[in-house]
């Protein structure tokens, strides 16, 4: 990882909800979680969660994969 990537990652995690989401995904491991499961587990509104997942993905901290009609997020 180069310095700009590290700064981007740390900046993404410097927000309470994003840190909680990332922790939940790390605990979930390779199975990952759907946005609905994350929302329910953390008590975060789905529209707010969508914004935070986008920020984590932009920072390279999470990946998403489509399974049928669902998206599954995993910690990278």
From TrEMBL:
It comes from the Bacteria. SMART domains: HTH_ARSR. It holds the Pfam family HTH_20. Keywords: DNA-binding, Transcription, Transcription regulation. Residues 1-76 form the HTH arsR-type domain. GO terms for molecular function: DNA binding; DNA-binding transcription factor activity. Signal peptide: none annotated. SUPFAM superfamilies: Winged helix' DNA-binding domain (SSF46785). This is Helix-turn-helix transcriptional regulator. It comes from Comamonas antarctica. The lineage of its organism: Bacteria, Pseudomonadati, Pseudomonadota, Betaproteobacteria, Burkholderiales.
């Amino acid at each position: 990882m180069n310095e700009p990537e590290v700064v981007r990652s740390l900046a993404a995690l410097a927000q309470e909800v994003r840190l909680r989401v990332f922790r939940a995904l790390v605990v979930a491991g390779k199975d990952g979680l759907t946005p609905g499961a994350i929302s329910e587990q953390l008590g975060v509104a789905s529209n707010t969660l969508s914004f935070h997942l986008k920020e984590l993905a932009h920072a390279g901290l999470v990946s998403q994969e489509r399974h049928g009609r669902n998206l599954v997020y995993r910690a990278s």
